[in-house]
Amino acid sequence: VSAKALSHLRICDFTGQLAGAGSSKWLAPFGAEVIRIEDPVKQGTWDILRTMPPFIDERRGVDFGGGFNNHNVEKLGITLNLRTERGRELLYEIVKRSDVVAENFAAGVLARMGLSYEKMKELRPDVIYVSNCGFGHVGPYASFKTWGPIVQAVSGLTFSSGLPDREPAGWGYSFMDHTGGYVMAEAILFALVHRQRTGEGQWVDLSCTDAGLSLHGPALLDWTVNGRPMRRSGSPHSNRSEHPAMAPHGIYPALGEDEWVAIACRSDAEWRALAGVVGEPWARESRLDPLAGRLAAQDDLDAKLAAWTRVRTKAAAVAALHAANVPAAPVAKPAERIDADPATADFGLWPTVLHSKMGSVRVDGLPVHFSETDWQITRGGPCLGEHTEQVLTGLLGLSSQQVAELRAEGVV
Amino acid sequence: VTSALEGIRVVELAHERGAYAGKLLADMGADVVVVEPPAGSALRRWGPFVDDRPDPERSLAWWHYNTSKRGVVLDLDSEAGRDDLRRLANRADLVLECEDPGRLSALGLDYEQLRRSELIWISVTPFGRAQPGRADLATDLTVLAGGGPVWSCGYDDHSLPPVRGLGFQGYSTACHYAVMSALTALLYRGVSGRGQFVDVSMHAAANVTTEMASYNYLVQGTTVQRQTGRHALETASLPSQVRCADGRYVNTGVPPRQPKECAGLLAWLHELGLADEFPEAIFLEMGAKRDFIDLSKIGVDDEITAIFAAGREALNFAASRLSAYDFFVGCQRAGLPVGVIYAPEEAFEDRHFAARGFPTPVEHPELGRTVRYPGAPYRFEKTPWRISRRAPRLGEHQSEVFEDWVSGAHR
Q1: Shortest CA distance to B311 belongs to which of B295, B291, B329?
Q2: Model ipTM value
Q3: Alpha helix segments (H runs only) across B299-341
Q4: Which residues of chain A does B157 touch, with a Cβ-Cβ cutoff of 8 Å?
């Protein structure tokens, strides 16, 4: 067993869904002890993924949500009824032993439960407390509620994905729940690096809409510097590349049902190579070289290239273009990139975990490898309260008898 | 002001794929030195440009992705340039590079050739260091298409192509993993004294950033299908993107499902004076009076079915009468999570982001301008995110960096 990068750390984790749980999905596989705190009264269903599809078989309930398992591998799960005095006391004991408290409730929820940063800091002066919500804890919309698609709508990411003269296409999944989780993990890690060097903890207010808005980069500077908005005629046309200027640059039909291939020419040389592969008279027209001519004729160029791709499989088109050193990729369907792609399979990207009730299930791994302290994902997400006894006895030193009493009293 | 990464030295080999990772570290206080070739980073040739005048010092892409960094120029095709890079790497805590596998080893500048026990080396490549794939032919578009995100995005009409979202999100996703890796490796070094090599695959990063597209397939072997403005799913769901009275769109989110939400929506319709024009208001009232609405009874119990349908209809009705912004704020105040679909610049100018101090002024003295930049993704109490300087001009900090880092070395 190799060394673990984060085995010196314990996280008191209130997060859920993906925007929050995604952060500790990074930390736990590197050895951090992540203890999920869940509500026994509501059966942990604040995290709606506990009961949602996909399902491994016909069984349903709080321990069978496939998304929950995917996002919570390698974490411990305990239940604590924080409405009770004893439940809060036990939580305080956990906080005293934790490096980080992480949460993604709506703004102010934890504080109203008496679990504010100030309170946590009394218990553990160097605690790191990271709060992640849709609009942050400060500002006119702080009380507004979100889920991934709402964050994407308000932060401009829905608008910036689409074809011209149509409504936005947006992102067909919660891209900002993934990214919110990444940014939250970064916030935790930045604060831990600071604490490791200075001994000082702190609070971090993370707003997913801020994080989303920060992803537009140069397009926002085009607005503030040049006064050019993205909302203008013909814009956005997001399969194209206005900056850097490329043509052709798009997603073209391939032979078969809902089959597509992405093609990009970064230079005139790549265009000439593509024209050579196509080998048809239109591709040799002088008006299409150099780039300015192709940019001026993009609609026509796209239509003619689509006629060429349409009669080829995406694999054949990509192979021919790669042979000529032209950037291209299939629009990969899940089965193709998961079960038929050595670049993911050989990377070990789809580990199989053992879940206490579901059994063996494949999950998303991490897209990195560390030479000394690589991640490990073998244990499935926790069933509700699966580790309550283990944590209360092991970490807090209670007896099994005491845990049984707490259970009887409805505290855990 | 203290910074989280105060004094952490990072050598970044300029590359469009990894510039954002360097920025994330630099804006949190790391001393990031971006190393460009004599002709400048390729990013300097990317538009848009200030006043639309193409110039390596006026690229807004270069500006955005290189805030808070210092810049030097090294010709890695010369022995002198390679020596200089070795000297910098020798003083660095962390090297960040995105070169195609093989290039640096051919130059004698790979991790194995420059390693020290405490050095952390982050390599971001299109397919990882040891996987098959044409790294030299990877762009943001091909990464997002081949890696899965594109399959899930687009329109109900599948004669239209699937869609790639703007903003180089294939790169940004990999860069987040690069930064998480760098910080994790720093923490481990802090307890062990040991650095290491980290192999980040952009293709793999895209593959695990697709939500249900991947894990529905992994768990139940099904394939999601793209839909306009909402989650790709195996079976079609009802539209959630609605055009408002001002022609702009909102995302109506999940319709009211519980009594409190029904009551909030109804109260809002009354406040707007629209309740009398909405015939199904009666069902909202029935929903509001219930103790609990059992969602599993939708389509089974007539009353619950009618309540749920009325909630959705009420949102569509209100949207048809209001501007997108008023719908957004009104619904949210009524307790319903909906969102106005803003263009990026509209969000940037919105009062909420202004109140949070998101627009961030940065001085560009050469142009006599103060430019507003996108701001902090996170607000730290003690170690604030901060743009400490505008992006470097080509070779701007050549002597300064070597003096700082390689004390006594004469340039």
Answers
A1: B295
A2: 0.98
A3: 302-321, 324-333
A4: none
Rounded to 5 degrees, φ, ψ at B253 are: 65, -150
Contact B147 A337 (CB under 8 A): yes
Average pLDDT, chain A: 97
Q: Inform me whether the pLDDT recorded for A191 exceeds 80.
A: yes
- Say which residue the tokens 């004893």 belong to: A86
The amino acid occupying position B377 is: P
Phi, psi of A206 (to 5 degrees): -110, 125
Residue ranges for chain B with pLDDT beneath 70:
1, 408-411
| Residue B163 dihedral angles phi and psi, to the nearest 5° | -125, 140
Cβ–Cβ contact B359 with A under 8 A: yes
Token couple for A7: 């085995």
Distance between CA A31 and CA A181 in Å, rounded? 18
For residue range B50-75, list pLDDT tens digits in order: 999 999 999 999 999 999 999 999 99
Q: In the block, which residue shows the tokens 């990772």?
A: B21
B241/A350 CB distance under 8 A: no
Q: Which two tokens stand for residue B408?
A: 């006594």
Asked if B165 and A139 come within 8 Å (Cβ–Cβ), the reply is no
What is the SS3 assignment for A121?
helix
Q: What is the rounded CA–CA span in Å between residue B237 and residue B230?
A: 8
**Residues 6 or more apart whose Cβ sits within 8 Å of residue B223:** A333, A334, A335, B216, B217, B234
For B139-162, give the DSSP string.
Answer: -HHHHHHHTSGGGG-S-S-TTSPP
pLDDT tens string B224-278: 999 999 999 999 999 999 999 999 999 998 888 889 999 999 999 999 999 999 9
Query: Which residues are within 8 A (CB) of B147 and not within 5 positions of it... i.e. 6 or more apart?
Result: A332, A337, B170, B202, B203, B204, B205, B206, B207, B209, B210
Which residues 49-78 of B have a C-beta within 8 angstroms of A? Answer: 50-52, 60-61, 63-65
Q: Is B342 on the interface with A (CB under 8 A)?
A: yes
Supply the pTM of this predicted model: 0.98
